[in-house]
Design goal:
With 580 residues, this protein is an alpha/beta fold. The chain has three domains: 5-38 and 450-571, OB fold (Dihydrolipoamide Acetyltransferase, E2P) (Beta Barrel), CATH 2.40.50; 47-312, inorganic pyrophosphatase (n-terminal core), CATH 3.90.1640; 344-443, Diaminopimelate Epimerase, Chain A, domain 1. It is built from 20 helices and 20 strands. The strands form four sheets. The protein has a five-stranded mixed barrel. Strands 4-3-5-6-7 form a five-stranded parallel beta sheet, sandwiched between helices. It has a five-stranded mixed beta sheet with strand order 8-9-10-12-11. Helix 11 (256-264) crosses helix 14. It is globular and about 75 Å long. The two termini are 18 Å apart.
Length: 580
């Protein structure tokens, strides 16, 4: 295996001596490069080993001590919000509560906690417990005031950065937030709201045995959220839930809606990957909150029969087809407004749908290597709703970046380091956006943007099932443990466009060394590469198993092709040859 693995080091591409071999399997080489210990805490995590796990005992004691009655749950309209609402609804119903759940509409309601909705519901039909999930961290003061005024026990479950925190919490109010890890002296691993809810359910089940049979299903819902919300996969609980989803998502203990969604995917080949979840399943789930109502996604996760689940999946897939067409149009038009000299891209248009700007921003950030803000127009509220992503901008904290630039400007925002939402009134947007661009400067240098980053060089012969299995020992992938990116040098690539998918192509790459090895390649929604036809150079991309109608083959998904006279190429982490 040592002859197959070639580790990239910071180098001038034209110096072939920059290649260094290391013995061992591909998975071991990747773990060594990433500083991951080769023990069970990463490859086979246990949820009870999470450093935050024990602290949930007190939260469970508090919840179980409440007299069951009616609970009002205010969640969010994305996948994390829908899965969290499903987890809480199933847990609370099982232990005797009557659950009323509110998921906001992206167009009609504001992002986050909806105090008018909460107060209106309480006024018309009082409830005995209030829970906000995947929201609440930015509305702690109004929630504390509601709790104090009405003497309603209130639980805030959120993973976003705290803001507007009261000096003193009411006795009836509790908060579950990943930032509390720091107060306990623990490392902040990263949790979705759904994973936080799973940790709570684990301890409630120890006090309420009737909940125990439901725990495997709740863990799988938490795994959907962890992958969807791009949560750190170094965190034990998040990794455990995501791993449970990949292993058992299509099994009998899974959530009925999740299982039906997985099996309805025509490309599902019997082994689920985080890429399958992130790029095939999550967009279908999110389509509900983007173009319609997130209640469709919640209904899928709470469906009680196969027929209902199948009908909802069909509706969600139709919404997702519409979303993809809208997103492609937004990306094309936003790129036309991009200034290559700028350090950020902030674009907006009255014709862009606010529900689609998020995935467009993420795709453009990956492509351009910078923070991207894309705004769509909400006609009912006369505001531009922006989604921002920094997934392609290295270690840039987009929340910190915007907070520093937004001081004194008429806008609101909330989110975390790699994704956030921002609102600007239509009458202010033309004056505010230029100021934001000027204040943000260039958080990512042009040199860094031009650099091709990858983990390891591979030979053409190593695009095979064995190495795909080796790579997938590190599943699930996500923040802090990304899908490995490889570089195969010195090849001829021939691409044929896919007529059914604009900007996509498939083809064959042939090694120009003595072996003349061939491997199949594919390009998805990237016209810069797909339209080239034939090119000679080096390919950078990821290994993918393509399963269709029972057949399976390994391909390389190309993210870039470096011509024979390229810019500098570097690996993400310098790797030195082993001492002899």
């Amino acid at each position: 295996m040592s002859d197959d693995i070639l580790h990239g080091i910071v180098s001038d591409w034209r110096k072939p001596t920059a290649l260094a071999t290391r013995p061992g399997s591909l998975s071991e080489a990747l773990m060594m490069q990433r500083g991951i210990p080769a023990d069970k805490s990463f490859l086979a995590p246990r949820i009870e080993d999470d450093p935050f796990y024990a602290s949930f005992a007190a939260h469970a004691d508090w919840l179980v001590a409440q007299k069951p009655g009616t609970v009002f749950v205010n969640s969010d309209y994305d996948t994390d919000g829908a899965t969290t609402a499903a987890i809480l609804g199933k847990m609370l119903t099982t232990i005797g509560w009557r659950v009323r759940c509110f998921l906001p509409c992206r167009m009609a309601h504001q992002y986050g906690v909806n105090m008018p909705v909460i107060e209106g519901n309480y006024g018309s039909s009082k409830f005995d417990l209030l829970i906000t999930s995947d929201c609440g961290a930015t509305a702690m003061k109004p929630l504390a005031e509601f709790c104090e005024k009405n003497r309603v026990p209130t639980l805030v479950i959120d993973h976003h950065k705290r803001e507007n925190v009261p000096e003193k919490f009411p006795l009836l109010m509790r908060e579950i937030n990943q930032q509390a890890c720091l107060e306990l002296g623990l490392r902040e691993n990263g949790y979705s709201a759904a994973v936080l809810s799973v940790l709570l359910a684990e301890h409630v089940a120890q006090r309420k045995p009737e909940l125990a049979p439901l725990i495997p299903e709740l863990r799988i819902l938490g795994g959907v959220s962890a992958i969807a919300d791009v949560i750190s996969m170094r965190g034990i609980a998040s990794r455990f839930c995501a791993q449970t989803l990949l292993a058992n998502g299509a099994g009998p203990e899974s959530n009925l809606g999740v299982r039906a969604l997985i099996k309805s995917d025509k490309y599902y080949g019997g082994k689920l990957t985080s890429t399958d979840v992130g790029f095939s399943l999550v967009p279908v789930i999110n389509a509900a909150g983007r173009l319609s109502s997130a209640n469709k996604a919640l209904a899928l996760f709470t469906a009680k029969d196969q027929q209902t689940a199948g009908r909802l999946i069909e509706e969600l897939r139709e919404l997702n087809v519409t979303r993809r067409a809208m997103q492609e149009k937004i990306q094309i038009e936003a790129l036309e407004r991009f200034d290559p000299a700028a350090g950020v891209l902030i674009a907006y248009d009255k014709h862009w749908h606010p529900g689609v700007v998020g995935p467009a921003a993420g795709s453009l950030s990956e492509r351009l290597g910078i923070p991207v803000f894309i705004g769509g127009f909400n006609q009912d509220k006369n505001v531009f709703s922006f989604s921002a992503r920094s997934t392609g901008a290295g270690d840039i904290d987009i929340h910190k970046l915007l907070k520093g630039a937004a001081e004194g400007l008429p806008l609101t925002f909330g989110g975390h380091a790699v994704a956030l939402g921002m609102r600007i009134d239509a009458g202010d947007v033309d004056s505010v956006v230029p100021k934001l661009i000027e204040r943000m400067g260039s958080p990512v240098s042009r040199r860094d943007r031009a650099t091709r980053n990858f983990n390891i060089y591979l030979k053409a012969a190593t695009v095979c099932h064995h190495n795909w299995e080796q790579v997938n020992r590190l599943e699930p992938f996500g923040t802090d443990s990304e899908v490995p990116v490889f570089c195969i040098p010195n090849v001829d690539v021939n691409l044929t466009p896919m007529s059914s998918s604009p900007g996509s192509a498939h083809g064959v790459a042939v090694s120009r060394d003595d072996s003349k090895e061939r491997f199949k390649v594919v390009v998805f929604r990237n016209r810069d590469i797909a339209d080239r036809g034939h090119i000679r150079g080096s390919v950078i991309g990821q290994l993918m198993r393509d399963s269709f109608r029972g057949d399976s083959e390994i391909k390389m998904v190309i993210s870039d092709i470096i011509p024979d006279a390229p810019e500098t190429v570097q690996s993400s982490t310098p790797v030195q040859p082993p001492a002899r």
